[in-house]
Design brief:
single chain; alpha+beta; 5-stranded antiparallel beta sheet; 10 helices; 50% helix
């Protein structure tokens, strides 16, 4: 009897354990189902997110590229970058970000460290070199991303070259209005592209007439070698100071001192020059020399 009761108690305990196990199994199954649903939803959201990113990446009207933060290798770039810089996609993927930036660009390692520390780099201005040698001013911002199992930096680049040119032209116009000396911009061949009112008054030509004339037409043949040497130095990036005689409309040759340097105007190379009339100074120097000679002659006669 006691044995029978003990068996019944044992069976009852086993049934309770089984019920508890079944309940736990049901709970675990439900949890797995919920986790599976959440995982599928997360996976689907990730796919949607990647699809959206790729759509933005491929169709953005601005340059986007991805760089390995350790090697600075360009890992990917969008079609706009290819069109903007003039390289093929294969060429860009074989390059480092330093290869498309102006030589001597500073702060790249610091920006990478900042991206690693803060996760983002705020807008900075950079100058990019296109395949044909043209320089483009741009604003760059970006953030860290995981790409091809590497820690990378995705950069969004906005071309601001036209804005810079407008700003520069505004500064030139301000200079043109306020300076009391002749100021002009000419192309590498010497043709006037822009002149101020003082230059027109000094040379004796109306503005539209002066813009059809080249600098070399206004100088004496004997000084052509000076103009050639100066032109080479300016194209090398030097700011050059030199003297040159310019023949104005009346046929009179006036000595000028020039300060000239290379600039970009409307996307094209040019030379900005500020000229100072040396006529008065030259006459004073000649008068001083004559006075010294007369003084010396007087001393000799007196002696």
């Amino acid at each position: 009897m006691d044995s029978h009761a003990t068996n019944l108690d044992r069976i009852k305990e086993l049934q309770e354990v089984l019920e508890v196990s079944e309940r736990k199994s049901d709970i675990l199954t439900n949890l797995l189902k919920e986790a599976s649903v959440e995982f599928e939803q997360t996976l689907e959201q990730t796919k949607i997110s990647e699809t959206n990113f790729r759509a933005i990446f491929e169709n953005a009207p601005e340059s986007i590229y991805i760089v390995d933060i350790d090697t600075r290798q360009i890992m990917d770039c969008n079609p706009f970058t290819v069109k903007w810089l003039g390289y093929s996609r294969e060429e860009l993927l074989a390059m480092k970000v330093d290869d498309i930036l102006e030589q001597g660009a500073r702060g790249i390692p610091e920006n990478i460290r900042k991206a690693v520390d803060d996760g983002i780099v705020h807008i900075q201005e950079r100058r990019f070199i296109k395949k044909n040698g043209d320089v483009a001013d741009a604003e760059v911002t970006g953030t860290l991303v995981g790409f091809q199992n590497k820690q990378c930096f995705v950069a969004l680049v906005r071309d601001i070259t036209e804005r810079k040119q407008i700003e520069a032209l505004s500064r030139y116009k301000e200079l043109f209005r306020n300076v009391s000396d002749p100021v002009f911009i000419n192309d590498p061949n010497g043709k006037f592209l822009e002149v101020n009112d003082v230059a027109c008054e000094c040379f004796g030509y109306p503005r539209q007439k002066l813009l059809k004339i080249a600098v070399k037409v206004q100088i004496r043949p004997a000084q052509m070698n000076i103009l050639s040497d100066v032109g080479q130095r300016i194209q090398q990036g030097q700011t050059v100071q030199f003297e040159l005689d310019l023949v104005i409309k009346r046929g009179v040759a006036i000595p000028f001192e020039f300060h000239s340097r290379k600039i970009q105007i409307k996307g094209l190379p040019g030379v900005l020059s500020v000229a100072r009339n040396l006529s008065v100074r030259k006459k004073m120097e000649e008068t001083l020399i004559k006075t010294e000679r007369l003084s010396a002659d007087g001393e000799m006669a007196s002696g």
